[in-house]
Amino acid sequence: MAVIVFMHAFGSSGRAWQPQIRQLGDSHRVLAPDLPGHGATPGPFSLERAVASIRSVILGEAEPVHLVAVSGSVSVALLVALAEPAQVAGLILSGGTAHGGRGDAVQRLMVRLMPEGLIVSILKGMYAGGKAEHLDQAAQDLRHAGKATILAGLAELGRLDLRDRLGEIKVPALVLNGAKDKANLPHAEEIAAGIHGAEHRVIPNAGHIWNLEQPELFTRTIHEFVRAVSAPSPSSTRA
Predict the structure, then answer these.
(1) Which domain holds residue 85?
(2) pLDDT per 10-residue tile (average), the chain, 239 residues
């Protein structure tokens, strides 16, 4: 039974993966930990603490795991794969980045000046393509994480640059991006180009958090990837 570790967006929580957990839980071991400062996990948030939290999860598993990450947690997944290559069987990465952009400082300043209620109102729009219950849940998670955690995540991503290290990742990787999430398309292309053998797919009519917009397609994509990666190679079959 393959192990799948779901990694949520910054400001969210592990429960954002409920559609996938429900569908895949019978055939796979599924884990959806809350990152530091999110859900049930105490803060403060930092990339170092986030990576350590995921490393502790996967090092407790007998077999290498598949990491499925969206948005900010894509950077965490990349760092985990670099730190624990023997414990990662595959990567599914959606809507993330391997480095900060020139507009990050401006974005952080704008968020710092906004009241928390406005931040929640703006960020929950990333979940608007899902059901009403997902939008309500996203707002709850964002309020629980709070402004300080959201700012910490933005600051950490702004300082990050993994472009020169992507070639060190040797596991199968599927890099995804919603077609409507235009700002992250160049980042997805960059990650896919940097990881040897990675596949890049643009998902039609999908936004940033599209595992809730198109849950059946996202779940099927995970299932097919894990099955393909887990299948024995022809040489091992002949042996």
Answers:
(1) 3-238
(2) 96 96 95 98 97 97 97 97 98 95 70 87 82 90 95 92 97 97 95 98 96 96 95 55
What is the CATH number for 215? 3.40.50.1820
Pairing of strands 29-31, 3-7: parallel
Tokens of 49: 């603490």
Residue 95 Cα to chain centre, angstroms: 8
Residue type, 230: S
For 189, list phi and psi in degrees, rounded to 5: -60, -40
Q: Name the DSSP letter for residue 165.
A: G
Instruction: Report the candidate in 41, 64, 69, 40 with the shortest Cα–Cα distance to residue 53.
Output: 41
Of the candidates 20, 21, 61, 17, the one whose C-alpha atom is nearest the C-alpha of residue 35 is: 17
How many CA atoms, within 13 angstroms, populate the side-chain half-sphere of residue 124?
22
Output the six-digit token pair for 65.
Answer: 């795991």
What separation in angstroms does the CA of 159 have from each of 81, 88, 119? 19, 25, 21
Q: Which amino acid is at 38?
A: H
Strand partners, 90: 66
